[in-house]
Amino acid sequence: MTAGPDRPALVKMKDKIMALLNFRKKEAPAPMLPTPEVEAFLTDYSIEVMPRTAEKVENFRDLLPKNTRVYIAHIEGTPIDDMVATASRLNADGFRVMPHFPARIIKDKATLADWIARYQGEADVKQALLLAGGVTDPVGAFDSSMQLMETGLFDEAGFERLHVAGHPEGNRDIDADGSMTNVSAALRWKNDFQSRTDAKMAIATQFAFEADPIIKWADGLAAEGITLPIHIGIAGPAKLQTLIKFAIACGVGPSIKVLQRRAMDVTKLLLPYEPTDVITALAAHKAANPEFNITHAHFFPLGGIKTNANWAIENGGTPAQPANAA
Description:
alpha/beta, TIM Barrel, eight-stranded parallel beta barrel, 14 helices, disordered N terminus
């Protein structure tokens, strides 16, 4: 995805941070104690991996709760063999596997059908995240997740769940003018599609760093009659320079100011970012408004899968304890 208008400032900020890395690190803050609200909000959280990051994890059952939904990101150039092998491993470990199907890297309907067949036959996959993908020029017939859905192949294969992408702060790949016009229209289409599929549907979003804009966006969808539940993207614990790198690459919007403020505070500059503030605020809002349409947290483990999982274990209470803890 393309970056927003803050890209030059972020690049300069990243250079400044890298120059300051010779400072002596301060101790990281102690984790917050689990609260009932946060524990409830983190129950049944999901997390994203890639084949190359999954290879570094010796045993996912030492890190993730039983039945965790694990998305497998399909980056352009990743062989389908690697994707299917990762899915097979995670399924064998007892996790619910949800691979990405990026429309713009799928050549044609036959390729899509082959991927679906391989995932099902070799890894018992029953769920998928459908998205356009970050590629500018499609390699073949598909340009959007809506085209993938319209093939009918996922319904024919009996997929039980289909997730689609959401963008709380917009997406300049889709709306170059910075508006929400096209992304909102796409979500309305996908919301209507749920009446034409037997699969359960939900929105899995890009990450953002501030609760108030997320809440405003989610409430706006509800006001439009979009009833798809939202699995909100959360950036996991990571070094500040790592987050800035990913924020530039993903075009994170106005909530990037959270990182900008942190970069200006020398007392926090070298401490790892943790999603404590945004999760605490969202959890409190959910507790006060049970009908709020954000139903799950979805982690992007930008600082590493183990780091993210350990943060959830420390802050998520009993539901976040790993499968092997029992």
